[in-house]
TrEMBL record:
Name this polypeptide is given: Fatty acyl-CoA reductase
PANTHER family: PHOSPHATIDYLINOSITOL-GLYCAN BIOSYNTHESIS CLASS F PROTEIN, PHOSPHATIDYLINOSITOL-GLYCAN BIOSYNTHESIS CLASS F PROTEIN-RELATED
Keyword Lipid metabolism in annotation: no
Taxonomic lineage from the root: Bacteria, Bacillati, Actinomycetota, Actinomycetes, Kitasatosporales
The entry's keywords: Oxidoreductase
GO molecular function: oxidoreductase activity
Organism: Streptomyces chartreusis NRRL 3882
Name of the encoding gene: acr1_2
Assigned EC number: 1.2.1.-
Length: 308
């Protein structure tokens, strides 16, 4: 993997991809590079205006790009169902579960879930399950779930998935990122058990400069914190182009192992893609199965073809 770059991405012609949160940052770079290699890419975005702006930007940069907007609000299960019901292709080769929020003040989604758990995990759990028939129609399809090295701060609490007893923004974020890895683990296990050929893998961008870091301070009007974050993004973080490399690697590189976790090779912080350390609790079969069952109950989405 040392030195792996976008130039190493195999030809994606004839493939269909969905990238959530593709209007900016890592999602936009991921969508751009998949389109550059010939994939038809659906940019799944909450804001129609920002999504259309991203589509226009990609078409200006890559006139031959086959890109289109899909309206998707992961914080609203009705929107997730509408997106999946309107998905216009019979097959889906690559699903990148990228969109997310980080360290927000306490809030709830349209369905009453704690915002970070609801968007980062439950929204993507529902989306992946609803798009499963299209994924299984594409031999060797990939699901790439974008987690974070910050998952190591906390395991999930099955007795308080929505952080109703005590809310700490960074712990809630870490739990949602642990949930991403447990979801990947259990999806990979089920895909293998049913002989589907579906590859579920996880990746993380390290510390990449995106809008993700400033959303929380902006939401609360913490201007000093926002300024500090912006300075850190300029001085310390790697650009979104570099942060997207582990995600692109997991989505396109031949031989990617199911349930692998790819991230930057320098201290999980920056650099070329490499196997990344993950907390042992993200490989717990029993925990993955419990989270899966709870996620099905909370979202009402079941994975028919992968029912254990």
């Amino acid at each position: 993997m040392p030195g792996w770059s976008t130039g190493d991405i195999p030809d994606q012609s004839g493939r269909v991809a969905v990238v959530t949160g593709a209007n900016s940052g890592i999602g936009l770079v991921t969508a751009r590079e998949l389109a550059r290699k010939g994939a038809r890419v659906v940019l799944a975005c909450r804001s129609e205006a920002r999504g259309n702006a991203a589509v226009d930007r990609l078409r200006a940069e890559l006139p031959e790009a086959r890109v289109e907007l899909g309206r998707l609000d992961l914080g609203d299960l009705a929107s997730v169902r509408e997106f999946a019901a309107g998905f216009p292709y019979e097959r889906l080769d690559v699903l990148v579960d990228n969109a997310g929020v980080m360290a927000l003040p306490y809030g709830t989604t349209a369905d009453g879930f704690e915002t970070q758990f609801g968007i980062n995990h439950l929204g993507h759990f529902a989306l992946t399950g609803l798009l499963l028939p299209a994924l299984l129609a594409a031999p060797g399809a990939r699901v790439v779930v974008v987690s974070s090295g910050m998952h190591a701060l906390a395991n999930i609490d099955m007795n308080d998935l929505n952080s109703e007893h005590r809310y700490r923004r960074w712990i809630a974020y870490a739990r949602s990122k642990t949930a991403n890895l447990l979801f990947t683990h259990e999806l990979a296990r089920r895909a293998a058990a049913h002989g589907t050929g579906l590859v579920a893998a996880a990746a993380h961008p390290g510390y990449a400069a995106t809008n993700l870091q400033t959303t929380g301070p902006l939401a609360e009007g913490r201007r000093a914190a926002e300024r500090l974050v912006r300075i850190a993004n300029r001085v310390v973080a790697q650009p979104a182009e570099a942060g997207a490399l582990p995600i692109l690697y997991a989505a396109t590189e031949p031989g990617v192992r199911p349930d692998s976790f790819t991230g930057p090779h320098i201290a999980m912080w920056r650099g070329a893609p490499a196997p990344s350390w993950r907390a042992p609790w993200t490989l717990d079969d029993a925990a993955g199965q419990r989270l899966w069952a709870a996620s099905e109950e909370l979202t009402g989405v079941t994975y028919g073809a992968l029912t254990a």
